[in-house]
Design brief:
Blueprint: E1 2-10, E2 13-21, E3 28-33, H1 43-54, E4 58-62, H2 73-90, E5 95-101, H3 104-111, E6 121-125, H4 132-139, E7 144-150, H5 158-163, E8 170-175, H6 188-204
Parallel strand pairs: 3-4, 3-5, 5-6, 6-7, 7-8
Antiparallel strand pairs: 1-2, 2-4
Helix pairs in contact: 1-6, 2-3, 3-4
């Protein structure tokens, strides 16, 4: 295993990234898009990433937290897309999965339209279902995907979640009482059980 920290350029500056590589090289890449305040080191993303690394995927973690205060929404989306495009132009891969949390699902909805990601697997962790772009991205997703959210999450929209059942490409995981971190308030053991449930669902994907 080899870790490489680097910065990827986009039109307004640079975004810190981390690449975790196999030896010998892999033909699969897992792209990790964290939440606004939920980093790639936080439990959901850490263990999902670790699972895919153990399955043979290299990891590309995009740490865009520092640019969020100074970018608007369209600039954020452009920054993620430019980062991914520039990286793949230099480092082509054959197989992909994309793991996105919260604000990262805004970018994921765009990336799922790319031809190279047609066969990718997508993990939508606490997606922003109240947003039309994320909801439509999920409804129309061609990728085999897992949607995991709690009904105590402000981003949860019950009717929209039920509508996603019409997309046969999606596995849906609704966690009763879970918040935007997919945790139960004041219940450590219950929160750990949620993480185990999520990882079991990821393995089935």
């Amino acid at each position: 295993m080899k870790k490489i920290a680097f910065e990827e350029e986009w039109k307004r500056g640079k975004i810190p990234c981390e690449l975790v590589l196999h030896d010998p090289p892999s033909d699969g890449l897992a792209i990790v898009l964290p939440g606004r305040g939920y980093t790639a080191k936080a439990p959901l993303l850490y263990y999902a990433s670790k699972y895919y690394f153990q399955k043979g995927f290299d990891l590309l973690q995009i740490h865009y937290h520092d640019i969020l205060p100074s970018t608007n929404e369209s600039e954020f989306i452009a920054a993620v897309q430019e980062t991914v495009r520039n990286f793949l132009n230099r480092h082509p891969y054959a197989n992909f999965c994309i793991v996105a949390k919260s604000i990262g699902t805004i970018a994921l909805a765009r990336l799922c339209k790319w031809d190279e990601f047609r066969e990718a697997k997508a993990l939508w962790l606490t997606p922003l279902l109240h947003r039309d772009d994320v909801f439509q991205g999920l409804k129309n997703s061609r990728q085999k995907g897992l949607v995991a959210i709690g009904n105590a999450d402000p981003a949860y929209a019950g009717e929209r979640f039920q509508e996603l059942k019409a997309n046969p490409n999606l596995d849906l995981l609704l966690i009763p009482g879970a918040d935007h971190s997919l945790e139960l308030e004041m219940d450590i053991e219950g929160s750990i059980d949620i993480l185990k449930t999520l990882l079991a669902a990821v393995k089935k994907l």
